[in-house]
TrEMBL record:
UniProt cross-references to InterPro entries, sorted A to Z: Cbr1-like_FAD-bd_dom, Cyt_c3_hydrogenase_gsu, Dihydroorotate_DH_ele_sf, Dihydroorotate_DH_Fe-S-bd, FAD-bd_FR_type, FNR_nucleotide-bd, OxRdtase_FAD/NAD-bd, PyrK_electron_transfer
Keyword entries, A-Z: 2Fe-2S, Electron transport, FAD, Flavoprotein, Iron, Iron-sulfur, Metal-binding, Transport
GO BP annotations listed: pyrimidine nucleotide biosynthetic process
SUPFAM superfamilies (UniProt xref): Ferredoxin reductase-like, C-terminal NADP-linked domain, Riboflavin synthase domain-like
UniProt cofactor note: Binds 1 [2Fe-2S] cluster per subunit.
GO molecular function: 2 iron, 2 sulfur cluster binding; flavin adenine dinucleotide binding; metal ion binding; oxidoreductase activity
The UniProt record lists the keyword Flavoprotein: yes
Cofactor(s) the record lists: [2Fe-2S] cluster
Binding site for [2Fe-2S] cluster: C238, C243, C246, C254
Similarity comment text for this entry: Belongs to the PyrK family.
PANTHER family: DIHYDROOROTATE DEHYDROGENASE B (NAD(+)), ELECTRON TRANSFER SUBUNIT (PTHR43513), DIHYDROOROTATE DEHYDROGENASE B (NAD(+)), ELECTRON TRANSFER SUBUNIT-RELATED (PTHR43513:SF3)
Name the record gives this protein: FAD-binding FR-type domain-containing protein
FAD-binding FR-type domain span: 5-98
Amino acid sequence: MNYGFETTEYEIINKEMLTDGTVLFHLKGYLDFKPGQFVEVSLPHFGNVTLAPCSNSSDKKEFELCIHAQGSTSNAMIKLLPGDKISLRGPYGQGWPALNFSNGPTAKISRHNLTIITGGMGIVPLRPILLEMEKKVHFSNLTLFAGFKKTEDVLFESDLKRWKKKFKVHVSVETSSPKFWGERGLITKSLQTGSIDKQTTVFMCGPEIMYSHCIEILNEKGIGDKQIYLSLERRMECGIGLCQHCSCGSHLVCQDGPVFRLDKIKQELRIKN
């Protein structure tokens, strides 16, 4: 784990085009990260981008980073090829709560029940959790709500179809093609009509405008703020608390987060009950 500005170089061993402008890089080597943490990836002459590792954190031979072209740096990065090398520092931050599915008062996730809500690229930092849960033979009580703008924006489609065989998976798009296999409409529609256990724990990541609408629905279903965790990773820049760009009230997202329990951050996000 690298703190400060120390970087480590990794070689790209494979590159997948997930959508138009979204690339999944497979990098050689072991990255010691916890799901939900982030790294700062640098490209000489361009700058840095903040990314969340999206592979299974237990993989010792390689890890994966997903990047969507939005600015000059990310547009340059998606043009990299296998054999090229990238430098990164981290991982940083506090990730998703530990997944301990044992019985009794020490259990981190109540009643062996987990609900994951993602919007767009928000599925990326939660993919490691889904990959981990997929390998647990005796665990299937997971519900995933994944929303995207249109059919062409759906990420990790083969994963989603595979997870659908084990978990309750709702994939929705606002604009769908005739052959789309999921649901049509906003993710809030799926959330309103979907069945959610009141004792569930919720992990949520997506555009912050999505949070207030989803939280309102969850609260109406009897799910309290202490059961909901969300990621504010989009706010980060330097990653080590120097630039203060990620300040959210009294919190620095890069150090205190990016994952927060809702009751700890709700006032700062100006989310009303």
